[in-house]
Task: structure prediction
Amino acid sequence: MAPLLAAARALLGAVLIGMVLLNVANAAGRYLFAAAITGTDEILVFAMIFLVILGAVLALALRDHIALELLPGRLRGRGARALYVLHDLATLCIAGLAADASWQFVQRIAAIGPRSMALGLPMAIPHGALLAGLAGLAAVALFHLVRDLRLLLRAGREGDACP
Result:
């Protein structure tokens, strides 16, 4: 899993650097040569969607997301592990429901066939990126849920406290 997370971080960094370079090139072209790069704004918006959704999946995978730490910070052992299980289950349900709604929307928008104004890109593609991200969140939550349930059950059998 670590190589996949490292690759995702590298991809996020490369996309962000690419966005900055494209924005600088577009601004330079617009102000120095009175010629903007066609579709730059759309590319930057679509890339930002990609960045945010991949970043959300990465943050959930690393458990590095914003969280309220009042209760988890006070719990130890099985209580903390049980809270992780509850969090995993809630995340799985919410991300799964959102992914299902997104899937239905992507199917409808693909059938209608709208395209972006500057690039002519089918709008099902950026909406599909959101769907992929929501499905990724659900998959990561399922992975965490299975792992945390195993740890909780193992701690219960062994009588040990969870880390």
Remarks:
- The first helix runs from residue 2 to 33.
- The chain has a mean pLDDT of 88.
- Helices lie at 2-33, 40-62, 77-112, 124-158.
- The radius of gyration is 21 Å.
